[in-house]
Amino acid sequence: MQRRNFIQIIGLIAASLLLPIQAFAAVWNKTAFEATKAENAIQGLGASPQIPTSKDIEVIAPDRAENGAVVQIEITSYIPNTESIAIVVEHNPTPLIATFNFVNGALPYVVTRIKMAETSDVQAIIKVGSQYFTAKKRVEVLENGCG
Amino acid sequence: MGVANMADDIKMRAQLKGDITEVKVLISHPMETGRRKNDMGETIPLHFIQLVTVTLNGKPVLETQWGTGVSKNPYLTFHLAGAKIGDIVAVIWHDNLGQSASQQIAVTQG
Questions:
Q1: N or C: which end of chain B has fewer CB within 10 A?
Q2: B77: contact with A, CB 8 A cutoff
Q3: What secondary structure letter does DSSP report for B8?
């Protein structure tokens, strides 16, 4: 009986430890978003800086942006089981722009508008299980949009 | 601080097109980087959305985290598979000052 109680208590402790970890997934990734170098932002996402390029990721962005304050980009991943898309702009003061996690039938596709400080690659980083893949598109920026 | 009721500040559309529901969201928010100065030369404080969560009939489908690099008045398009006409798509955002707003819309035929 004592042993059984012990196991139940261990079970309760394990369950209480799991709860904050699940909640943590929705907490803003401060380390990655406040990083001022792209490689640190990418490490903050959990990826290594050397990410293989994939032709199954499409990054659509203008060749030239008159005003860096509003640059529309479209990212599609054709890689099966894509979990998330991150957008990184190497030459921005804080390079990580956004992360998008897709579950329950949301497709790995997003259109959004971003700020660009200067001419830079717009990099999409795709997470598939424990693996990461990337694709880039260079955008020439004529006016700093980062204030 | 606290939860501001700013539902009017999120414009949404969810349209079924073939098998895919296209959702478009436009949020009114300054998305201040904390680096801009006003006409008096004073720094405008950091004020930006950090989290946006989208649900379909109450079930999470998209969780997105933002830095200050998302443009003022953020815009999003994304696609949902398996949604039907009348299903409810809801969006809620939270910013770094503890403010938030939400909005929801039913899926219509595109």
A1: N
A2: yes
A3: G
Q: How far apart are CA A83 and CA A130, in angstroms?
A: 10
Binary contact (B67, A97; C-beta < 8 A)? yes
Contacts of residue A94 in chain B, CB cutoff 8 Å?
67-69
ipTM of the complex: 0.92
DSSP B28-78: ----B-S--B-TTSPBPPPB-EEEEEEEETTEEEEEEEE-TTBPSS-EEEE
Coil, strand or helix: which one is A55?
Answer: coil
Residues in contact with B83: Cβ distance below 8 Å, sequence separation at least 6, in sequence order: A105, B14, B16, B21, B56, B89, B107
The whole-angstrom distance between residue A87's C-alpha and the CA centroid of its chain comes to 6
User: How many Å lie between the alpha carbon of B59 and the closest alpha carbon of chain A?
Assistant: 8
pTM: 0.87
Choice between A144 and A146, residue whose per-residue pLDDT is larger: A144
**Of how many residues is chain B composed?**
110
Is some CB atom of chain B closer than 8 A to the CB atom of A94? Answer: yes
Note the pLDDT tens digit of each residue in A42-94: 999 999 888 999 999 999 999 999 999 999 999 999 999 999 999 999 999 99
